[in-house]
Amino acid sequence: MENCDLEKFDNVLEYICLELQKSLKIMPLEYKTKVEEIRLRNSCPLIISFEGQDYFINAQGKLTKDYGKSIKVSKENIDKTFKLISNYSIYAFEEEIRNGFITLKGGHRVGIAGKVIYKDHGIDTIRDISSLNIRIAREKKGVSEHILKYIISMVNKKIYNTLIISPPQCGKTTLLRDIIRNLSNGFHLLDKGFKIGVIDERSELAGMYNGVPQHDIGIRTDVLDGCNKKDGTNMLLRAMSPDIIAMDEIGSISDIEAIHESLKAGVNILATVHGNNIQDLISRHSLKILIEERIFERYIFLDNSRGVGTVKDILEGKKFTSIM
To answer: What keywords is this UniProt entry annotated with (predicted)?
Structure first.
């Protein structure tokens, strides 16, 4: 696993300008395998993040908490890096840029901030790039295996409609991805695999690159990349006959409508949402609808109290009682 994590870090460095790449290359190995994000902000320190902490990097590749000793990112650094990320062809990535991110080979994702340009149809592009957030895709296989017994009905071998809840960067997408992989391939608790339709609106679950998933999401999985959940649900139901539809970070009224459409068609739902507890969800009108209707039969709560992806609790969906 460590060699794989190092390879992912090294792959990402190829997209960063040489001036910054030099210091990142000579970082201690123990940190290279942990890095989750590399942030470039114009006229600000170069920052890496892992395990919930931010660190600055100095010219010798050492981590420091003193930003006065760190490398400062220039506009030229950002421009050079953006050219590498877009393979010197910004027009080829216009649609992704409108959405605020570009997906790299390997499933890594680069968030983009700058001057947003509007035209009649909405956002046209982002210019004068001021920030780049490079998120390293670290696939963690096996993290769902102790969870599956809670979301599979032993009576009919179907899955319970399941919602994974956590604050940002606590592992909900990673957990959902591994659940998809296991259910698609066929887990030992099952006598079959499920056909799963993934609506990957933010290109994080599958990490599609040139039509190929960069993450292992199983052999019976179909992906709609960059598609909104309502349109994606209709397309999957019409064309792909899924047993399960999986979607990341629900929240809008149209997302709720999509879930209702799936359930009416007899298709189960796997989803994630930002939050800390049931009260958080009830405070949001759209999610309150799902909770009051008892749509989800399992709620999985994550935090980072014992590291990213810690399962804090699993609730049964009718009475909201713990089943762990």
So the answer is: ATP-binding, Nucleotide-binding
84: which DSSP letter? H
The one-letter amino acid at 236: L
CATH superfamily of 148-316: P-loop containing nucleotide triphosphate hydrolases (3.40.50.300)
Tokens representing residue 176 in the block: 């959902």
Scan for tokens 């599958």, then name that residue: 206
30-40 pLDDT, tens digit per residue, is: 999 999 999 99
Q: Are strands 244-247 and 268-274 parallel, antiparallel or unpaired?
A: parallel
**CATH of span 2-135:** 3.30.450
pLDDT digits (tens, 9 = 90+) for 46-87: 999 998 889 999 999 999 998 888 999 999 999 999 999 998
User: Please, which residues have CB within 8 angstroms of residue 51's CB and are 6 or more apart in sequence?
Assistant: 34, 304, 307, 308
pTM of the model: 0.85
Task: List, in order, residues 6 or more apart from 126 with CB less than 8 Å away.
Answer: 97, 98, 100, 112, 113, 114, 115, 116, 117
Q: Residue 140's CB: how many other CB atoms inside 10 A?
A: 15
Side chain identity at residue 138, one-letter code = R
CA–CA separation, 232 vs 224, rounded Å?
Answer: 7
